[in-house]
Backbone:
């Protein structure tokens, strides 16, 4: 966890120095995050005390370690690929510097940073052989990203129009069971008309 939070700060310092702050560590992410961290410590302590055999399943711990490592690598590769386009906070206003990144790891999934975080978070609990928190973390991460991707992809469609819609059609989100925002015909018609108007005026 220490490496994760410190590396989040370092990556922000490298590519988004203008928004660098203590918040870039993501330590104070939310109350839910703190509750989750406390819950995993409580489960680990109780199981070590009353059912230590659960904690001796090395093959499960190794699987969790692999999930943590791959998830972390996936996330940091996404941040590196996106560069200054990556932000911890969802943008609701398009800046001139905003670009749609679809190359590299973004050609495999639309949200590799979220996918990486999902597997890292669940992997930390598998690593600790915390069965209850493994399930709870997976469910909480799914619920969080289901809502966040709906919100974020709606704005990405407004930013990049049919270009983003085509990207959605050919590349999955990367987060298990999360589909993302499904654009309705009315929105697609609006985006197409907007682009045609812009092409005509130019």
Residues:
């Amino acid at each position: 966890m220490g490496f994760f939070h410190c590396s989040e700060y370092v990556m922000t310092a490298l590519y988004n120095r203008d928004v660098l702050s203590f918040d870039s560590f993501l330590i104070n992410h939310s109350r839910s995050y703190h509750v989750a961290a406390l819950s995993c410590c409580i489960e680990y302590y109780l199981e070590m005390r009353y059912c230590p055999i659960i904690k001796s399943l090395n093959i499960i711990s190794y699987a969790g370690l692999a999930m943590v490592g791959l998830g972390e690598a996936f996330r940091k590769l996404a941040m590196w690929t996106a560069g200054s386009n990556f932000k911890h906070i969802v943008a609701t206003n398009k800046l001139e510097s905003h670009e749609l990144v679809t190359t590299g790891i973004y050609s495999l999934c639309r949200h590799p940073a979220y996918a990486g975080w999902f597997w890292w978070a669940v992997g930390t609990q598998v690593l600790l052989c915390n069965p209850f928190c493994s399930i709870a973390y997976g469910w909480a991460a799914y619920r969080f990203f289901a809502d966040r991707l709906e919100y974020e992809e709606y704005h990405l469609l407004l930013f990049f129009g049919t270009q983003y819609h085509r990207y959605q059609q050919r590349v999955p989100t990367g987060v298990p069971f999360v589909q993302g925002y499904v654009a309705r015909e009315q929105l697609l018609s609006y985006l197409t008309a907007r682009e045609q108007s812009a092409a005509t005026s130019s």
The helical segments are 2-15, 31-50, 58-82, 112-127, 131-160, 162-170, 185-201. Residues 13 and 20 are 6 Å apart (CA to CA).
